[in-house]
Amino acid sequence: MQVTRWIDKKKKNIDEAIEALTSHDGMDIEKKSGTWNNLRTQKAVEKNQEMAIGERNIVFNVVTYSYSVTLSDDSLPIEERTTKRSGKVIVYWEKENPIKYIINRNFDALTVLRFLLAYNSKNEIIDNQPKLNTDMFDWLIKKIYLKENDIELASGDSVLSIDNLVGFKGHPADEEKTVSVVSTAGTTVMNILSTLSFLLESAEIKQVEFNVSCGEHENIKLMLSEKVLGSDVNKYEGILDDDVNIDKLLKEAKIYLLCYLKLLPAIMQNYDFSKTVDKEDPESEKPSWSSEVHTKFLERVAKDLQEKIDTRVSQIK
Questions:
Q1: Cα Rg of the chain, angstroms
Q2: pLDDT at residue 180, as a whole number
Q3: Of the candidates 93, 127, 161, which is a domain's last residue?
Q4: Do 123 and 142 fall within a single domain?
Q5: Residue that terminates a domain, selected from 72, 101, 127
Q6: Which of 32, 138, 157, 256 is the most exposed place for a label (fewest CB within 10 A)?
Q7: 132/68 Cα distance (integer angstroms)
Q8: Domain around 186
Q9: Nearest 5°: phi and psi at 188?
């Protein structure tokens, strides 16, 4: 599931937010393209849940929704121009912070949230999705490729390990940005000749997927793109599996809260730190990530690729 995150500037607490999300069932709205109608919403559980992430205490719940979209073109029968849409919203809050929503929508997330909350004014919902970039994705691939897997967290906390790359997407360097995105995926993606070749040819990596472990969370599949985050609850392995009675929606919510509030911040902070020189370390003369380091990494990939090709040619002979 791929998600985005948003801040509610209007609601003051989680109960108000959930009440707003679940009190407009049956509501219809008219849009230029057609009608949104038959809205249905439901809380995952009656009592809000709590989750500790480090020293932070997060209160959360999940609201599922569905509605129909009927296009205004009446040249077709209504059943042929009506589609059903559904999804979920993770609502969470921590003391002295605004209400935030994690929703499994991307480009139309704001429109859907405004519909669910019956908002009609500007700036009631604002974007809160971390903005990532292709340079960070290149840095991540380099760390995985060279087995620089561990990322240190706060003092006394667990180590975050980026275990292996399972897929990525990007634009070839010799093509216009309007061409189809090239992608590759698989559990051993770094060992594939075409993948190594693509790393050299790609001008922009737009998305990366990799596995992460952190403390009692032994495996979390994490997908990062410039404006979207994703994971897969079915790929998760760890302490959340110990509760066999946990609702799947709540388990999924905990995984995404962990991704947003612990894993992604640690990765972003480590990336930022890698571009600077540690002035307190007398042995630190250069940053661990720079255009020079990037160039040397690609040269290493080119060398490894040529060795694999030579090996393959010798096998054929």
A1: 23
A2: 36
A3: 127
A4: no
A5: 127
A6: 32
A7: 33
A8: 134-293
A9: -120, 40
pLDDT per residue over 7-41, tens digit each?
A: 999 999 999 999 999 999 988 898 887 899 999 99
Cβ contacts of residue 158 below 8 Å, gap of 6+?
Answer: 214, 215, 216
Decide: 186 and 193 in contact? Cβ < 8 Å: no
Indicate if the pLDDT at residue 193 is higher than 80: no
Lookup result for tokens 């991307």: 106
Confidence of residue 156 (pLDDT cuts 50, 70, 90): low
Q: Helices 109-117 and 14-21 sit at what angle, rounded to 10 degrees?
A: 90
**Is residue 94 domain-shared with residue 226, that is, in the same domain?**
no
Say how far apart CA 215 and CA 208 lie, in whole Å.
22
Q: pTM (2 decimals)?
A: 0.89
Is residue 244 classed as helix, strand or coil in its secondary structure? coil
User: Which residues are within 8 A (CB) of 212 and not within 5 positions of it... i.e. 6 or more apart?
Assistant: 160, 161, 162, 163, 219, 220, 221, 222, 263
For residues 139 and 284, membership in a common domain is answered with: yes
E-strand stretches of 54-159 = 56-71, 82-93, 99-103, 125-127, 150-151
